[in-house]
């Protein structure tokens, strides 16, 4: 009996997903669109094409990239080597 119950618990999500996919393809009401799943960045929120924060972030990344193209080393603190 417990084996049958465990099998039922394991198979039921697959059966539910199959039934939902079948219903979505048949009726057209449960269609998935790309706009339903908008991209979001961690600690930045939603990402849209006209987002000012995204443009600022791209500008900052471009500034960092061009800085390392001109000077490909990380700036040091000034105290290099072992001093006593």
Characterise the protein shown here.
By secondary structure, this protein is mainly α. 54% of the residues lie in helices and 5% in strands. The chain has two helices and two strands; from the N terminus they run αββα. The chain has a two-stranded antiparallel ribbon with strand order 1-2. The longest helix has 26 residues. It is elongated, with a radius of gyration of 27 Å.
List the helices and strands and how they pair.
Blueprint: H1 2-27, E1 40-41, E2 45-46, H2 52-70
Antiparallel strand pairs: 1-2
Q: What are the key terms here?
A:
84 residues, mainly alpha, 2 helices, 2 strands, 54% helix, elongated, signal
Gist of the model:
This protein has 84 residues and is mainly α. The chain has a domain at 39-74. It is built from 2 helices and 2 strands, in the order αββα.
Q: What's the multimeric state?
A: single chain
Instruction: Output the structural class.
Output: mainly alpha
> What is the helix tally?
2
Strand percentage: under 5%
Ranges where pLDDT stays below 50 over 5 or more residues in a row are none
The secondary-structure element order is HEEH
State the end-to-end distance: 76 Å
Radius of gyration: 27 Å
Signal peptide: 1-17
Keywords: Signal
